[in-house]
Design a protein that fits this description.
Length: 142
């Protein structure tokens, strides 16, 4: 059972779909996406204010202005698809579950994780710069 009405979260989902993210709704979809070779950007979406003010616009800004290119971009929604979200967090190597989260994975292995505290009180531009720096260190460098 989800915590929120689908009508409420639909615009929050669409914000990511519009910039190229694929929704993952089941644990099997999560594993299928995250176990592929290449680079993956995974966003744990949320209804919280820091997702609305920071995470979603910050990730969109990073993609638009910083030229980040991933083999796939996927998202799960905390509080909605709970099993899929729990499965995604299995890839975060013991990190505390927070919402939102943004993870860069390479060949199914976590190489960078942004937690809720990385989004709180930060502008979309600051978030985009952090994500871009992590991308350059972990993806573009290899």
């Amino acid at each position: 059972m989800s915590n929120y009405a689908e009508e409420m979260v639909a615009p929050m989902r669409e914000e990511l779909v519009q910039v190229g993210f694929q929704q993952l709704l089941t644990p099997a979809q999560v594993d299928a996406a995250l176990q592929q070779p290449g680079t993956t950007l995974l966003l744990v979406n949320s209804v919280c204010g820091c997702a609305a003010a920071g995470a979603r616009p910050g990730v969109a800004e990073a993609l638009r202005s910083h030229g980040l290119r991933f083999d796939r971009m996927v998202t799960v929604f905390a509080g909605m698809e709970k099993e899929a979200t729990a499965q995604a967090r299995e890839y975060f190597e013991g990190a505390m579950p927070t919402s939102p989260q943004a993870a860069i994975l390479k060949d199914g292995q976590l190489v960078h994780l942004m937690q809720r505290q990385d989004f709180l009180g930060r502008s979309p531009e600051e978030i985009a710069a952090t994500l871009s720096s992590a991308y350059r260190r972990t993806v573009a460098a290899s």
